[in-house]
Backbone:
């Protein structure tokens, strides 16, 4: 695989993983049954509110990678891996303690607050596939970021197409435009 293809693949993969994180954040993570048989679905917005910012950070990072120079690409790869680690910690924490992660939604639905009180009214919890998908996406973000940090020094650099051009006027007094430019520059075009 050429370095240009690897670059494109890693940038697109980073953006796709950011989109996957945002998608999982909007879906139902936990289905709870409260006292009295009241069902309650808890989405990722309530269970892991930080995932939206992390997903958006992955999308922005993919855009930055497209235009970054050599050293900055390595830094961005490390940052992407760190984002993946935070995603893993966030999603695994929610899966490990679904009642605690769902407490804001439970409080909003029942007006019961406090960890012990909330735990007492939850009779059953089932975990959907979406938090596991967020864990998988977080692990892939870590791998993608490490690949960017390792492979990006071999990527082609940004093109010079949009670099600034030397706009210093030539001291050409043979044309009217050149005479005007030299006058603007402070020299007298009538003296030879």
Residues:
């Amino acid at each position: 695989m050429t370095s240009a293809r690897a670059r494109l693949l890693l940038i697109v993969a980073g953006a796709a993983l950011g989109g996957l994180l945002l998608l999982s954040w909007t879906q139902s993570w936990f289905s709870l049954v409260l006292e009295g048989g009241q069902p309650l679905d808890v989405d990722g917005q309530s269970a892991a509110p930080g995932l939206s910012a992390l997903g958006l950070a992955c999308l922005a990072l993919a855009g930055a990678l497209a235009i970054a120079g050599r050293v900055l690409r390595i830094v961005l790869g490390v940052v992407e891996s760190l984002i993946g680690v935070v995603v893993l910690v966030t999603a695994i924490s929610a899966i490990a303690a679904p009642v605690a992660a769902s407490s804001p939604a439970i409080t909003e639905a029942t007006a019961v607050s406090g960890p012990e009180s909330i735990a007492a009214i939850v009779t059953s919890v089932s975990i959907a596939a979406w938090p596991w998908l967020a864990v998988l996406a977080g692990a892939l973000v870590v791998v993608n970021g490490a690949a960017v940090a390792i492979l990006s020094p071999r990527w082609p650099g940004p093109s010079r197409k949009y670099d600034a051009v030397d706009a210093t006027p030539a001291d050409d007094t043979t044309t009217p435009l050149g005479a005007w430019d030299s006058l603007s520059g402070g020299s007298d075009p009538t003296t030879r």
